[in-house]
Amino acid sequence: MTSEINYCEPIIVENDRKALKEIERSIIKTYRKPIWSKFIKAIKEYDLIKDNDKIAVAISGGKDSLLMAKLFQELKKYGKNNFEVEFIVMDPGYHKDIRKLLEENLDYLQIPAHIFDANIFEVADRIAGEYPCYMCARMRRGALYGKAKELGCNKLALGHHFNDVIETTMLNLLYAGSFKTMMPKLKSQNYEGLELIRPLYLIEEKYIERFIKSSGIWPLNCACMVAAKKIGNKRYEIKALIDKLKESNENVEMSIFRAAQNVNLDQVLGYEKKGIKNSFLDEY
Ligand SMILES: Nc1ncnc2c1ncn2[C@@H]1O[C@H](COP(=O)(O)OP(=O)(O)OP(=O)(O)O)[C@@H](O)[C@H]1O
After folding, report:
1. How many angstroms separate the CA atoms of 155 and 57, rounded?
2. Would you say 66 and 217 are in contact if contact means Cβ atoms under 8 Å apart?
3. A Pfam family name for this chain (predicted)?
4. Which terminus of the chain, N or C, has fewer Cβ atoms within 10 Å?
5. pLDDT band at residue 23 under the 50/70/90 scheme
6. What's the gap in Å between 60 CA and the centre of ligand 1?
7. Is 161 a pocket residue for ligand 1 (Cβ < 6 Å)?
8. Which CATH superfamily, name and number, covers 18-283?
9. pTM of the model
10. What atom in ligand 1 is closest to the CA of residue 63?
């Protein structure tokens, strides 16, 4: 299976860059149903934004977080303006041409971002051996939380979308032997008073791809200079597996998603709550 998988499929943008106003309009018009409405729905359903929140919106420069930044700007324009945002971008050690592309995109899209440097790629590559992704993700999370805190934010928004959520569920099931999903929000254990939110939770990746391609913006693709050389990323295998399953069951993605909404505690052998393990035998 591994040999067939493309570990980092780049997004090829087919048309010229559209005018900024047109790009912004397309978010709430052309992509109203699959993107804008899903963004609003997740915010409402999971109560992601409260009055007076100050939200650090984390942008890697990839398609997901660029869209997320624009969604927050549109929300401030057309929705309730009861919160503040700060856009934060951490440079983990990008190649200088990638850094330039990132800055140009932010500039073109009029996203005023705090860009800061962290030496994450180099450290993860040096000390994490063949499986740098986990270490890199942890260090990255730390750097982003730290910056959010420094800016006085109480929330950190990340650009994980619907497909990230179901892939995580499957990764846990198939490789960790546990049933766990990616949550739409969670309180940080290490940074008191900081909450992580995922406003793209209900948005399917294919629409983000369509949006970015039609905008003519070249997002950062495979900017990671470490994992591209190594094969530690099981996520791509899961993606391929879900695609394969979809050929015979088009609802498979929704089923995986719903599984985390419909856990039947009478039909599990054991579960963990607040760090304490429970067995069905405890109450049998
Ligand atoms: N260097 C960074 N600076 C700021 N935020 C980041 C950075 N890297 C990741 N993030 C945040 O973490 C989220 C998840 O990171 P991940 O690398 O899994 O994203 P991705 O699937 O490549 O998404 P994207 O298209 O936004 O890069 C991003 O959407 C973004 O919000």
Report:
1. 8
2. yes
3. ATP_bind_3
4. C
5. very high
6. 5
7. no
8. HUPs (3.40.50.620)
9. 0.92
10. 25
